[in-house]
Amino acid sequence: MLHAAYLIIAFPLLGSLLLMTFGRRLGEPVAGWLGTAAITASFVVAVVVFFGVLHAHQTDCIPGLLCQGSPIAPGSLLNDQFVQHLFNWVNVGGFHANVDLLVDPLSITMCLFITGISAMIHLYSIAYMHGEEDFTKFFIYLNLFVTSMLILVLGGNLLLTFIGWEGVGVCSYWLVSYYFQKDSAASAGKKAFIYNRVGDVGFLLAIFILYSQLHTVSYVEIFQRAGHLSPLWATMAVLALVLAASGKSAQIPLFNWLPDAMEGPTPVSALIHAATMVTAGVYLLCRLHGVVNLSSTGQGVICGVGLATAFVAATVATSQSDIKKGLAFSTVSQIGFMVLAVGTKNYEAAIFLMVAHAFFKALLFLGSGSVIHALDGEQEMVRMGGLRKVLPWTFGTFMIGWLAIAGVPPFAGFFAKGSVLDGVFAKSPVLWALALLTALLTAYYMSRLFYLTFTGEERFTAVGPNGEPGIEHPHESPWHMRFPLVVLAILSAAGGAIDLPWVHTWGLDTFLNPVFLTTTPAATNSGSTQLFLAIADAVVAVAGIGLAWVLWRGKAARPELTPAFLKRVWFWDDAYDAVIGRPATALSKAAAIVDDEVIDGAVLGTATLVRRGADQLRKAQDGYVRTYALSIAAGMAAFLIYLVTRVFS
Amino acid sequence: MSVNPSWFLILSALLFSIGAFGLLIRRNVLVMFMCVELMLNAANLSFVTFSRMLGDIGGQATVFFVLVVAAAEVVVGLGLVVAIFRRRHHAVVDDLSSMKG
Amino acid sequence: MTNHTFPYLDVLVLLPLFGAALVAIAARTSDQIARSIALAVSLLELVVAVLLLVHFKTGSGAFQFTSHHSYASALGITWNLGIDGISLFLVQLTALLIPIVLLGTSVKAKGGAYAAWMLVLEAATIMSFVALDLMVFFVAFELTLIPSYFLIAGYGHERRAFAAVKFFIMTFLGSAFLLIGIIYLGIVHQHQTGGPLTFALGALAHTHLSSGTAIVVSLAFLAAFAVKAPLFPLHTWSPDAYREAPAGASMVLSAVLAKLGTYGIIRFNLTLFPHASKTLAPLVLTLAVIGIIYGATVACAQKDMKRLVAYSSLAQVGFIALGTFAFTSQGLTGAVVMMLNHGLITAAFFLVIGWIYERRGTWQVGELKGLQGPAPILAAVFTIIMLASIGLPGLNGFVGEFLVLLGTFLSHRWWAVVATTGVVIAEMYLLWAYQQAFHGKAEGANATTADLTVAERLIVAPLLILIVVLGVYPNLVIARITPSVARELAPIVQTTTGVYHRAMHSIAISGRPSGSDLDAGVIGAGEVQR
What is the pLDDT of residue A66? Predict the structure, then answer.
């Protein structure tokens, strides 16, 4: 069953190619259905392959595959990793990078939730994008995105992953600047792409470092040889990987493109900028856990980046007035938690949170999309409120998402965040305290967002602060939009079941263990400690919700709680602009002047010099025959004298 | 009194000098032309002299080349002089410096 | 050495020349007929080139289809042609581009002469790529200047005369050094062997020079090639020439002609002066890295699309030089791959920019806005070219760039690290230009910009298809390039023991059964050393 893995990628690719060729003729809504069908087929294949991998747990090898399954040495990292070779790609000298798919528990877990959520969001988009001029193009991009994302997770070597990595980046660029006639959308797309490219430098350097030290880019071989990596090079590689991850996963110092990316249509925000693409950095770090394990400095840096990002983004999220921006910072913060988990070598927890986050954050974004759809594109929470009655379905599902992300038991977020925090506690109680504070903020800002949107008075009927006309009859969304909301709500509510902390015989933890081969740090906590931690998590969640209720009940705006410092993201963009942006612009202008004046000046100066010299010389050519004759005679005389003196000396 | 070959060479040098001197100091194109001819023939004279002295017929052959070239030069040169005369009614070289650099 | 019954290379060189004569005669009666003939000739040339590609032996690093005729034996010049993996795709590229240029670009008047000059340029360029006699190469190298000059000066834009003269004089000055170097090398070789004078590449490669002399002579060669490429800081002819030239000439100039520079470095500097090249490597690598960063930085400040592409080319050529002087198989292969890919990309750029100019009469980015609305296909085509130029994996630009950086990292780590940051800057100016010209709301003349016609789509299609195919399956070219690269590197690797051992180590440690020809090439080179 595993050899069907390439079909997971092939279906979305086929979908996008079909849409590119016939999309215009198909038009709305058939193009959308075609796109959704392609992803659904991919999901079905992923499920089949998943059972194949599950089955492979018991047997060592699957016939028809290049089998890497049998353990090479005790404790080898090669268990349950299956490489499917498709074709040769780049082979130069000792460098081999082929199109190989690595189908192991980790990648198939990723595939499952990526294809599943993508299918939901495609379905949702059919209704959401209704009436858009470039309806077909949207689905081309979306299918291409899923293709790239699947290449990213299934790629068997760093180079193939890099293809997917860049592919999702460029699809994100297209989709963010989908409304290209809006200058802000165009700029946001560009910003996202450039920030990602800065991260890509890290990815490239990581490839170079690993190849120059281990002479391979294939994951399986990297794990085999990771022991040859000196601590210094391991740290260098991890630092490069952190740079890569911070670009793609919107972590400090490259996180501020993500809020701007909300210029894209809401389904895009849900799929790319919440559920899938932005978690790619975390996936990369998990995928290369063998390298991360070698560098404690690297782990420290990862912890630092993750925690700082989680905290900064959480504070910023408390003061956003745009519903999507609020969710965007929440995403940044949650990914910070995942990165923190990686830094504590708690890879299973990172993946667990990634999956749970994909459920509830996609749900929240789609819910916000439903709200925005109902309010004719209004995104400011100042003009919402009281939507509870108008949008009952959206309200109900959004509430589940809210409780899940806040960490209220027994929703998915409680278990996922809990397993991350347990690991952090095992590493350092101080870090844990900070992380817990961030969790409190999470519960607080999500509750604020929820109250502002759904409770209180109906502010949308009134004329807006900038003179927008009131919205009289907001309407609940059609079924294609409600159905994904319900499915995701169920997953958000019950998603914790995939990895219950007291179950050790099945579940995500057990499934992924052959990949990571580490004992979960949380398991080192004693039973009573675990209970204490779980209670602390729950208390913090409830406290955050309560705090928000006290502070924001019935209010539409509280300027004293949303200072400019937080609204403007700790002045991060302004600082970048002052420190990098403006000097760089000046530098490039200066370089252009240098090129024109100095370098080209030298070239043209030489030409001028020659011309000036010629101007002097040409005076000798005065046009008088006698002058010429005299100079000939003088020359001859000189020649004669020379001859004579030579002869007589 | 036998004629020593060196006399011919001295004569040739004198003729050449007269020609060169004339070329340098005269302004009239026709006179300058005659000076050039004088120089050419001075050279011819030395060619013939050396030919005799060294018993090499090549020198005398060269003279024929020079004569032919000189004739050709006179044809072109006089044609130019006539053309200039038609336009300017005189042939003073110092007025003809339009080819200066 | 295989001598095919069909003299492919002689035909490739002579066919366009005869075609040009025919076109020039036809141009007296009608430009229309002349252009049709030119197109037919260039398509025939393309067919011959493709046949050559089909018959090219993939696993071999040696020169193939060699043609050897005595030409002026007293002067030591022989009509000595041959092709290997390094020149193969440059010839193919030239043969592909000329029909595209003739179809895709037009000039206001004297179209017949334009087509004839294009064919002369094609002949001279292909002759340069396949010449194995230094004098024949030099003649062809110089011959390219004449049609280029007339194409720029005769059909260019406002400052065409200035640009043409600047281009001519700068490149000509460089070639003067080249000529001196060639003659010196020939004479020294004759003295050493006591045999007849020869300028054959294979013979001259065995000339013994003291290390000091070798450096001086190799600098003379480098001078000509660095101007042509162009390498920083000898590049200033290129923005003017590319800007002022008509679209077709910009395409050929940047895509193929400039490659003569980098090709010359690989073919002649590396072959003739392996030791000196190694000594000069830090200098060239530094200039290359400066070129990468500097070209990209200056490009950021350009408001004129053609100048922007010119500076972006400077950065790309920097990558090619970087890979060349890294002296690793990955680096040099990457450089050769990049020559082809940059040719495809930059030609496509100038073609599309030419079409934008035809519609809007400007290249100023500031005067264009929102073109994606009225002209979505044009925008899509431009996007693909832009992404390929940025080096997006899956498109052709990436493969070369990646191999170059990887190869450089293996031997010269810090240069590679700095060059990698150039990747980011390269993206900034292209995205900026794209946003300015294609995003936003189109108004006025921009709103009525016509989209690409069906004919134009078909003309640009071959370039786009190659951009995608060579990105997805680069082995098509890499497999043909690597054996020649291994041959070219063998003498240098012997002097570069550190890199060499590392390379051998990498083969040893990867431990894969190397069934493919590519590995055999590299390992073969190593075994000679052992």
Answer: 33
**What is the pLDDT at residue B16?**
93
Contact criterion met (CB < 8 Å) for B94 and A624: yes
What are the C-alpha distances in Å from B66 to residues B14, B57, B62?
Answer: 19, 15, 6
* pTM for the full predicted model: 0.86
CB pairs under 8 A between A and C: 157
Three-state DSSP state, C516: coil
Q: Which residues of C touch A207 (CB under 8 A)?
A: 406
Q: What are the backbone dihedrals phi and psi of residue A345, each rounded to the nearest 5 degrees, phi first? A: 60, 25
For helices C329-360 and C475-495, the axis angle rounded to 10 degrees is 130
Question: Using the beta-carbon criterion (under 8 Å), do A204 and C294 form an inter-chain contact?
Answer: no
Domain ranges of chain B: 5-100
List the helix and strand counts (H, then E) for chain C.
Answer: 23, 2
* pLDDT < 70: residue spans in chain C: 1-4, 494-530
**What ipTM was predicted for this assembly?**
0.87
C478 and A200 within 8 Å at the Cβ level: the answer is no
Alpha helices in C237-304 (DSSP H): 237-244, 247-252, 259-264, 270-272, 274-300
CB C66 within 8 A of CB C132: yes
Please tell me the number of Cα atoms within 13 Å of B5 on its side-chain side.
Answer: 11
The verdict on a CB contact (< 8 Å) between A88 and C421 is no
Range A81-88, long-range pairs (CB < 8 A, 24+ positions): A81/A219, A81/A220, A81/A515, A82/A2, A82/A53, A82/A56, A83/A156, A83/A218, A83/A220, A84/A2, A84/A3, A84/A5, A84/A6, A84/A156, A86/A6, A87/C473, A88/C475, A88/C516
Chain segment C110-160, per-residue pLDDT in tens: 888 899 999 999 999 999 999 999 999 999 999 999 999 999 988 888 888
Residues of A in contact with C328 (CB under 8 A): 93
Q: Is the peptide bond before C233 cis (omega within 30 degrees of 0)?
A: yes
Quickly name the fold that domain B5-100 has. Helix Hairpins (1.10.287)
- State the alpha helices, DSSP H only, in C370-453: 376-390, 396-411, 413-438
- The pLDDT score that the predictor gives to residue A523 is 62
In three-state secondary structure terms, A89 is strand
Amino acid identity of residue A20, one-letter, is: M
Nearest CB partner across the interface for A201, out of C294, C372, C423 = C423
